[in-house]
Amino acid sequence: MMADFLLFATERYGLPILQPLAEALQAAGHRPHALLVRGAAGARLSGVPALDVRQAVALRPRAVFSAANDVPTFVRGAKVQLFHGFNVEKRGDARGHFRIRGVFDLYCTQGPATTAPFRELARRHGHFAVVETGWPKLDPLFQADSPVQREAQALRASAHGRPVVLFASTFTERLSAAPHLHDAIAAEIARGERYWLLTLHPKCVPALFERYRALAGPNAAFVETEQLIVAQRAADVLVADTTSVVSEFVVQRKPVVTFRNRAPKPHMLDFDDPARLPEMLARAFAPDRSLREAIAAYADAIHPWRDGRSSERVIAATEALLRGELGRLRRKPMTAWWRALQIRRELGYWGF
Known about the structure:
- By secondary structure, this protein is α/β, with parallel strands linked by helices.
- β8, α6 and β9 form a beta-alpha-beta unit.
- α1 crosses α11 and α4 crosses α7.
- The longest helix is centred in the middle third of the chain and has 14 residues.
- It is globular and about 60 Å long.
- The model has no long low-confidence stretch (mean pLDDT 93).
């Protein structure tokens, strides 16, 4: 049965999460629509009509899929959390990945590492369900003939056979590698031994964007946020910090070099002195057995799904919720009503 669904994002980095889901909805005969606000305002999802807030309310969708921390509770339909990243332990659980805001009916988790904690939270709170589906954003990485695969090949063509390194950095100032590694990366680019793909979180300060864009040339290219999945597919090694891109990249079983990661783990090659970047790159391009095993173990824990069908599982889980197959949910807590008022104020909608 054809139905309307709403895709919700508050930042541009939500678009690559929602695009595969939009395509899966269309393939199933449904009609996806987009409500893109705040940092995502003015952006577009390919082939998906964009709505304003009042149009979204009038749509009365079957469900709202959110790639943000919250969701417009005043829009009809089941509220489904897709997450905007992996758990990279930037903050404690109560303020970070496992924070329960009381506005979602269903959490679609990425893998065992997050499924078990969320199921325990669901047991404790009772007002939401949890289904492990995998993450829609990563679907294109594992689809044999997706546009991402073809675009990645085109991106690698500029390397002319050289190894490819991707640099990505978080916007959190105390955790960002971008200010510290610029000169070391610039030196590596000048050597030309490897080809570099450079990207920054959209919230990084404009001055950093200017510095990294200036490095583009025959040995490097700057890629925008919307191209991040393509860049991850194209690259052989990632250099990063405490960004969730680390986890996205490791899912492909590829090595990562991290600069002052907040919670370094065995699958990372972590370092704290920019002068050691050449050494760390050499280790990443020749990983030993223990590193390869650590990468594989972590990838299986956070996202074992490698079939490119997480979006389909999200849709199936949502339908199961709507049919009542995931159990009876308790009423939302009082804190949810306060958050709902905040969302109304932020989006400028006071219709009741």
